[in-house]
UniProtKB/TrEMBL annotation:
Its EC number is 3.1.3.48. Pfam families: LMWPc. Transmembrane segments: none annotated. It comes from Tenacibaculum holothuriorum. Belongs to the low molecular weight phosphotyrosine protein phosphatase family. It is an enzyme of class 3 (hydrolase). The keyword rRNA-binding does not apply. It comes from the Bacteria. Keywords: Hydrolase, Protein phosphatase. CDD domains: LMWPTP. The lineage of its organism: Bacteria, Pseudomonadati, Bacteroidota, Flavobacteriia, Flavobacteriales. This is protein-tyrosine-phosphatase.
Amino acid sequence: MKILMVCLGNICRSPLAEGILQSKVSSDVIVDSAGTSGYHEGELPDKRSIAVAHKYGIDITNQRSRKFRRKDFQEFDLIYAMDESNYIDILSLASTEEEKEKVKMILNESHPEEDRNVPDPYYGGEMGFENVYRMLDEACSVIASKI
């Protein structure tokens, strides 16, 4: 099973989601992350994401930002978007119904059919990152239980 987490810049939310889910599943489940934009390509996750992950015993310092690619549809079984904008951007690149069916809103795992967004904490403070961590931890627990 290969799962991709996607946000805008791949430095705040999706690296956290990648780290959280990887910590909850066996090593034969591959979890990666990407961004719909290439603004931060090659960069480490935001220091605040690194800090909140570390607080919960998760190391995300080996991750590097990358942009979502069309070939990700072939490489991954599930693709989780952090918010509606990411979801729409990913779907716009899908060319088949099979590819579209792989794309999900991550918080629909913990709050089915509510289409909730994971807020982007980039311009906020530490508490925003803590809140995002809690949301993602809950969703990733549900995902892990289904694998």
